[in-house]
Design a protein that fits this description.
4-stranded antiparallel sheet
Length: 97
């Protein structure tokens, strides 16, 4: 089964970056413990200030389980409240062949 790789980009205003980053770090700790999660690394884009997350899951099933986890919906609701709307944009990746 092919792995699932993605980049999540979250546009965040400077005035809420600290709170949003703390929430993302806490969320990342939980996600790294999920079965099938192989990578969850959070960064800040130097140019735009956006938070950027690089994720990898062992399979489509592991990714679907991640999406269905109530912790995912809880994180997104908290993030939306902090940002005043919006959320993440997903960029799904595939290997070059």
């Amino acid at each position: 089964m092919p792995q699932i790789d993605l980049i999540a980009t979250i546009e965040v205003r400077p005035d809420v970056l600290g709170v949003a980053a703390a929430l993302l770090r806490e969320y990342g700790d939980a996600i790294r413990d999920e079965p099938g999660n192989l990578r969850f690394e959070a960064f800040r884009d130097r140019d735009s200030g956006a938070m950027v997350v690089v994720e990898r899951y062992s399979s489509e099933e592991a990714f679907e389980a991640h999406l269905a986890d109530p912790a995912n919906a809880e994180f997104n609701a908290k993030l939306t409240a902090i940002l005043g709307g919006g959320g993440s944009t997903l960029q799904m990746l595939e290997p070059l062949t």
